[in-house]
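Summary for the steering committee. One of the milestones for this cycle was to obtain a three-dimensional model of the protein with nicotinamide-adenine-dinucleotide bound, which we needed before selecting residues for the alanine scan. The sequence and ligand used are listed below.
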Amino acid sequence: MSKANYNAYAEAKAQFDQVAEKIGLDGATRDFLRQPMREYHFSIPVNMDDGSKKIFRGYRVQHNDARGPAKGGIRFHPLETIDTIRALAMWMTWKCAVVDIPLGGGKGGIICDPRGMSDREQEQLCRGWVRQIAKDIGPCIDVPAPDVMTNAKHMLWMLDEYETIHGGRYPGFITGKPVGMGGSLGRKEATGFGVIYVLREAMRELNMNIKNSTASIQGFGNVAQYAAKLYQQLGGKVIAISSWDNTDQQAYTFRKKEGFDSTDLEAITDPFGSIDKEKASGLGYEILPGGAWIEQNVDVLIPAALENQISAENVHRISKQVKIVAEGANGPTSRDADKVLAERGIFVIPDFLANAGGVTCSYFEQVQSNTNHYWEKDEVIQKLDTRMTSAFQAVIDLARQKKMHMRDAAYTIAIDRVVFAIKSRGWV
Ligand code: NAD
């Protein structure tokens, strides 16, 4: 699907409809699940450093909370739309269900570009977002977290505002907090590591050896950096990474055909995941166009940037060598591209399974925060691996048994669990 026509919410609904049809879901249940239960739209006034006042648009969408409080990140992005947030909230419902954690699906965002804002302005934005929605979120209602261009610092400002409004300490209100301030050890690694745990399992199933396998990754933010790190630790070689250059307003791909240590790149990457291309060139990286990450001769592609990055326009550029696409990002593959991947026999680890490590660890963080008892890092990482591995196994077992693609199998398991919850509660 072309970028102009792409609508993440339409994609999310179409994916759901397709599986709902296959599993024979009744009409009322379909209607209930193909749209959010609640959504909030609001304005956030911020006093800017230059003395002006700017009004930002903020959102929170709660797709479904039948299995537990809604859960999902807050994204800061200049191109944020309510439909993207609706889609992301819906995918969160399936994500929490597929890894079987007692949480529902939510998502939030603000249309803004934090790259051009001072820390003070960003703090005002975070506090303003909480002020607008403080009564409709909370540890037992809806628990936010970081997403694209938000981080632990933002989460702590949000927590502080929430606690000021509600007059108490509620560390379970938000996850992705700094370690030592209610955050969990292992949270920053969790999403990227989770992608590699399920990739490791997929390779085992396909009789591939992760050692000496090669990968190309799109994005070099939180998810991609830790995915690259663990993949390399397990013996894989990353040969290309692409990232967005905010000065040039375009992406570049950084390549070393012999493979590289991603920690070199981390040292020249800003907090928003943009790699300094002059410094990368000095370190011997080839600088290629942003889209080149997809056409590399590698065994594994890991899209870990944004949605709609593998589309009808570029899916045919994927090399014959590619055997697995592990979707680190949410919604990176359009439905028409997904069909092509299936026809070509490329094994897809679907987004809401592949990147569920983040929310799984957020759930661990919430448990630790609510009980005020914090676990060692090894314990967190071990529990994460166990949870991701068993979710992957359940999905591949169903896929094999019913001769389904992985995405449909993951949807079937997730939808079944959510339907069980809404029907047991007597909602439909
Ligand atoms: P991030 O902001 O830390 O990093 C995003 C990266 O994508 C940056 O390196 C940026 O340069 C790059 N990028 C943006 N546009 C690009 C383009 N056109 N081409 C190439 N690179 C581009 O974000 P993140 O937290 O790593 O999230 C990445 C994806 O993973 C998103 O889809 C997000 O919703 C999803 N996700 C994140 C988490 C999490 O815990 N952070 C959990 C689950 C899913």
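Key point for the committee: The first strand starts at residue 38 and ends at 47.
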